[in-house]
Amino acid sequence: MIICSCAVIRQEELREVTRKLYRSNPGAPITPNRVYRALGKSPTCMDCAPLLTLRIYATAQEVIVAEGLLRGDAHPRRIK
Ligand code: FES
User: Fold this and answer.
1) 35 lines ligand 1 (CB under 6 A)
2) For the whole model, what pTM was predicted?
3) 72: which residues sit within 8 A by CB, 6+ positions away?
4) CA-based nearest residue to 39, from 76, 4, 65
5) Tens digit of each residue's pLDDT (9 = 90 or more) over 29-47
6) Could you tell me if the CB of 44 is within 6 A of ligand 1?
7) Residue 51 CB–ligand 1 contact under 6 Å
8) What is the dihedral of CA 60, 66, 71, 75, to 10 degrees?
9) Kindly report the CA angle at 36 between 9 and 51, in degrees rounded to 5?
């Protein structure tokens, strides 16, 4: 699924970059700006902003829970 058609950001690409950003700095929020910068892309129209933001939060939640489970956390941290 393509999330941003201007910069051509796919769901799989978003998942990879979210994982990379989370591992590099677990305490920092994952924002659309950080995602674009990490991918080396830039937005044009920002029509995708609402969907991109929702997908970033959903993907970050998945990544954080998965990373917590892999670390052996009994109760993985969740985004509030
Ligand atoms: S659709 Fe994402 S910047 Fe245009």
Assistant:
1) no
2) 0.82
3) none
4) 4
5) 999 999 999 999 999 999 9
6) yes
7) no
8) 90
9) 55
